[in-house]
Amino acid sequence: MNIAPIALFVYNRPWHTRQTIEALQKNELASSSKLFIFSDGPKKEDDLEKVLEVRDYIKSVQGFQDVQVIERGANWGLADSIIDGVTQIINQYSRIIVIEDDLVTSPHFLTFMNNALEFYRDETKVWHISGWNYPIDSEGLPDTFLWRVMNCWGWATWSDRWQFYRRAPEEICEKFPKDKIRQFNLYGAHDFWSQVMTNVNGRNKTWAIFWYATIFLNAGLCLNPTKSLVQNIGLDGSGTNSGKPAFFQTTLSGHNPNIVFQKLNEEELAVNRIMKYFDLQKSSFLRRCLRKIKRMLA
Description:
The chain is an alpha/beta fold. The chain has helices at 14-25, 48-58, 78-93, 109-119, 159-162, 169-174, 178-184, 193-200, 208-217, 245-248, 268-297, and strands spanning 6-10, 34-39, 66-71, 95-100, 103-105, 126-130, 144-147, 155-158, 221-225, 230-232.
């Protein structure tokens, strides 16, 4: 097997970074994997101490075939750092596994990602391998499924797909009429498109939503494990783009997903369950808001 290199992006969270690397070290294929660690520079003076602490730690990391640390001389920001780092590594090795400094992986993560990269290498309709999945009911579902949405918490791809990636907010908008936006948003189940708009108006600078848009515009599919092989431990306010912990909370699967041939279209049952999960979260949020209003009026 052609073992894919791992690109890890870190910043100023020593504890999270250590958890991420220690989990990776427990993977069977760690010792056969090249690890490239991209360390972003401090955005402000207050970040310097933690950045240096992270850099001191990553220079001592072992347990991989090779470890290379790339220290950014300035603050690139997560989006630019990932785009540059992924492009640099994938152009050299033709495939890549990507993680960030707040992701704890299953011991089966690297095996699954490499197996999937090999299995779908020549199937150009599959653009992306995800390691994380929403906490949905897995009853009746296969170990893996294909669908349109890209998850970026532990992922992999190939150079012949990534070459089409561009972070171009205005250009993307021109290619998305209302009907496409509706499909992009899983027919209203979740507002992915709002992330594009916050980039257009300058309120945010992210990269992942444009990878999803690129895949979507090329009618590509993403492979997901039904049970997550990645857990995000950074939804504690410590990261650049922290979300709602309860919404994304998952438990790590103790099983290595079986990858078998499946029709190259979306797994409707899995997609419907994810859409239902989104709807349940909306209902739960609305109920919480109503309870809060009642308390304020009491």
